[in-house]
Each structure stands twice: as structure tokens, then as C-alpha cells.
Amino acid sequence: MPPEAVADQYVAYTLYRIDPAWRRLPVEERAAGKDAFAEVLEEWSERMDIRGYSLVGVRPEVDLMLWKLTERFDDFRELAADLNATPLAGYVTTPYSYLAATKPSKYFERDSKRPPRRIVPRGAPYLVVYPFVKKREWYALPIEDRRRAMQEHATIGSRFVTITNHTTYSFGIDDQEFMTAFECESPADFLELMMTLRETEASRYTERDTPIFVGAAADIRAILDSLDGAAARVEARRVV
Question: For 28, how many CA atoms within 13 A lie in the half-sphere containing its CB?
């Protein structure tokens, strides 16, 4: 029997939408709800890696995204339970939520002396995330052909030095096969990368690579303030 596989990390992307009714609450209630939500995330950030991204004004169905990384699967459930206890949770829906885990790629040689593969975010200003599924024909190809195609794919991607790829695996634990996440300095950089990769052999075997989310990294309290315009009102007062 093959040895039991152990995930180096579990990775989750949770995307939230705020009910517009929340914006009609008194400002004091909104502030208290944001504080409670932020306090939970700040406390949990001492136990696992949590990064926030704003999608306000980018996609109509989501407002913010949390990128969560942990070695302990139950952290996701326990964090969600704590967030559900906050007043803001009554006005939050989760249109999209993705789960994945890290593992070595079969298409590239692994040095036995290297530590297990881990996602280490570099803290770039933007994160592009999308689920990815390959056509079944891909898996019918000989491993040598798949390895050659993926090495071409990786070689092209390495030319885009402002972009860091964080690919994780979802086989059997979510609806997609992979979760692809790219940290970048500008969304325009990622656009150029994807246009170039469309011409590779591996791209012919893409079944699905949508929806795509482009998040702007920010402190969680700043993201929450953008949900009801609090940040804009503070800035306006400073200008006056």
C-alpha cells in the first residue's frame, strides 16, 4: 500500500457578500458589528494565516475575500463558528467558498532534501483566484507528454517576475480539481500572463477556469469600513 498522504497545508478562499439592508442600520450598530467581526479575525490571525482582500466595486456578487492557510483542517470550521456569533454575520452571505491542500506536483522532480511544499504568501497588493478543472483527455495522455506540457507552461510563467503562483489541489475535497492563486503587483500584469499562457499546449486541456476574482490586499478593518463607506467619510473629513 502507498504511504498515507499528509497535507502540508489546507488552504481556503472564502468570499462574502454584505446584504444592502445592513447599510441602513444605525451607524453605531454597523460599527459594533464591524468591530466584532474584525476582532475575531485578529484573534484567529495569531493561530493561522488569514489575509483579507477587498472586491468592492469589482464584482457585484462579492465584497471581500479571506485567504486562509492552516495545518489544521478544523480551524476553518471553528473560525466560521466564531464569525457566525458576531452581529455582522446576520447580514453576510457566502456566494463562493473554495477548499484545497498543498502537495508536490507530479510534473516536476522533487528534491528529497527540500522541506514539504508550503504556500508562503509574499504580501503582494493583488491576489487573483479561480477554480480550475482540466478535461478528462488530459489524464489519458502519457505522463511524459503531460510533464513536457506543464514544464513549457511553467517556463513561460517564470518570465513574469512580478507574479507568484500558488497552485493547490482540490481533488475529492471540493468541486474543482485545483485552486489557482496568483499574487501580483498589478491586475494588468496578470492579464498579460494569461493571454500568453492561452497559447501553450497545456491550455488546450482546460475545461473550466472561472469564476475569477481579483482582490486588493488591505487590513480587515479598512475592508469592513469600505462596505458602508466609512473609510470614504473619514477621508472626506480630513480633506475639509
Answer: 0
